[in-house]
């Protein structure tokens, strides 16, 4: 039969993107599995060999994938050297703990400030950030968030609404409020690449006046589905207005 090297501890994370989902979901332990391939089915064959591996702290999916590729090659060689013994001792995969790891896509990169914690945003960035930039919206425009710095301490406690943006001039960082705290970014992409200072001076400065009632509205990053809700409300209001005038 045909053997397959899979970078997870099957049956956890069957599918095409196990390393990304390992990081995305904050797994602390992963590994490599050697299985026999079943015709017309993926990642469900009997296990011939398996080796756990502790996920390095703060590693990205790319970094972890490179490590597991080397470990997988070594485990495959070990399996081939003892193939009759491994086939004789193979174990069928159980259903307990089985999860699926679908391909990553651009829709995964939207940040939902009201729902996601600092740790969840960190895991999202570590999982896909090197390939697909995290995204949000501001004033109806898509902004890509680059150069992530992780959890961020903000002393100004006046604006704790998820999506609120605080510019720290001292460190040239944009801090964004999420479900349980703040996370920071050094760079954004809005038509062109902008440092946090450029984005603040060119776009956000007018919304940051202390006495401006529009600070939290115009200065906020808005989650995509929240923006869609606001758009639907506006369209509904417009329809009602048109009906009234008719």
UniProtKB/TrEMBL annotation:
Formyl transferase C-terminal domain residues: 103-203
Domain Formyl transferase N-terminal: 1-79
A molecular function (GO) term: methionyl-tRNA formyltransferase activity
GO terms under cellular component: mitochondrion
InterPro entries attached to this UniProt entry: Formyl_trans_C, Formyl_transf_N, Formyl_transf_N_sf
Stored Pfam families: Formyl_trans_C, Formyl_trans_N
Keyword set, alphabetical order: Transferase
Annotated protein name in UniProt: Mitochondrial methionyl-tRNA formyltransferase
Native source organism of the sequence: Iconisemion striatum
Lineage: Eukaryota, Metazoa, Chordata, Craniata, Vertebrata
């Amino acid at each position: 039969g045909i053997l397959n090297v899979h970078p997870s501890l099957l049956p956890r994370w069957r599918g095409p993107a196990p390393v990304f989902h390992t990081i995305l979901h904050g797994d602390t332990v992963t590994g490599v599995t050697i299985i026999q391939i079943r015709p017309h089915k993926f990642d469900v064959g009997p296990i011939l060999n398996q080796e756990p591996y502790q996920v390095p702290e703060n590693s990205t999916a790319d970094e972890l994938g490179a490590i597991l590729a080397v470990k997988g090659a070594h485990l495959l060689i070990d399996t081939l050297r003892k193939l009759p013994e491994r086939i004789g001792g193979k174990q069928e995969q159980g259903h307990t703990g089985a999860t699926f790891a679908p391909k990553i896509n651009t829709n995964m990169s939207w940040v939902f400030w009201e729902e996601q914690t600092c740790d969840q945003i960190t895991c999202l960035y570590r999982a896909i950030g090197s390939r697909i930039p995290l995204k949000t919206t501001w004033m109806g425009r898509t902004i890509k968030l680059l150069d992530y710095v992780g959890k961020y301490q903000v002393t100004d406690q006046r604006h704790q609404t998820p999506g609120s943006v605080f510019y720290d001039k001292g460190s040239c960082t944009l801090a964004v409020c999420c479900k349980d705290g703040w996370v920071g970014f050094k760079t954004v992409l809005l038509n062109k690449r902008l440092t946090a200072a450029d984005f603040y001076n060119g776009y956000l400065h007018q919304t940051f006046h202390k006495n401006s009632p529009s600070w939290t509205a115009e200065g906020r990053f808005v989650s995509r589905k929240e923006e869609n809700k606001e758009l639907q409300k506006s369209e509904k209001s417009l329809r009602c207005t048109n009906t009234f005038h008719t």
